[in-house]
Amino acid sequence: MVELEQEVERRRRLGLESATRKALIASSYRLARPEVYDSLQDAALAPEFLAVAEYSASPSADLKGLLQRLETVSEEKRIYRVPVFTAPFCQALLEELEHFEQSDMPKGRPNTMNNYGVLLHELGLDEPLVTPLRERFLQPLMALLYPDCGGGQLDSHRAFVVKYALGQDLELGCHYDNAELTLNVALGKVFTGGALYFGGLFQAPTALTEPLEVEHMVGQGILHRGGQLHGARPLVTGERWNLVIWLRASAVRNRLCPMCCREPDLVDDEGFGDGFTREEPATVDVCALT
Ligand SMILES: O=C(O)CCC(=O)C(=O)O
Ligand SMILES: [Fe+2]
């Protein structure tokens, strides 16, 4: 119980520290590419992504039609690929992130597994970029692809950029995400190695099989369930920056915490916190094993 209290206290402190960094960055960080902070424009998005989102939001859309417009990486694992950003937007975002990385601003790290990279909400990029991306584009798409995982009820996210380089982080161990659904977009730069690999669902352990290897393509995103075990192979050359958006649906996680598979006992937090809510949204029928 003491350990639990300490962990609750640690997380509460993390939330406060993050809010403090965000305020300092908002008041004294000088942007390199201010256009990245403009409200998300269609021009930043790949035509294929716009088409997929527009189709998904149309009244006659169905899963079959959507699958004709996306690349299925694995039908069994329900992993998909779609171009997300244009090359110029990836370039501009990378320049901004690199400029921030080199600045003397305080940096919160994405999660317990990555030592480099940044949290997008601390940079002030949630409101102009990530929230519109989730609400306007990802929500209709995810509603069709993963209705049983809260795809139609996404109401928060945790977005960050992971960076891999020689002498820094090189690889990522096998894990599952604190998310119902995940979008992982390769932003660049030039690199070899670093492929993602996917195993089974953590909630439904299966006999050890060969993991599925998925190469990155700059500008393209991989969509997967948060519970799908995955990791990243070691980087061999160059530098790899990926935008990872952990998408959350309180309608699902309020009933079944994705990390411990139990009904959560909530503690108040800043911002989106870990994506739980005290108010009950409409629920979805969930099965932890799908
Ligand atoms: O290295 C990557 O691109 C994967 C990152 C990832 O899976 C995560 O941060 O949850
Ligand atoms: Fe992950």
Automatic annotation (TrEMBL):
Fe2OG dioxygenase domain: residues covered: 155-249
Source domain of life: Eukaryota
Example of a GO MF term: L-ascorbic acid binding
Signal peptide start-end: none
Protein name: 2-oxoglutarate and iron dependent oxygenase domain containing 2
CC cofactor: L-ascorbate
Encoding gene (name): OGFOD2
Swiss-Prot/TrEMBL keywords: Dioxygenase, Iron, Metal-binding, Oxidoreductase, Vitamin C
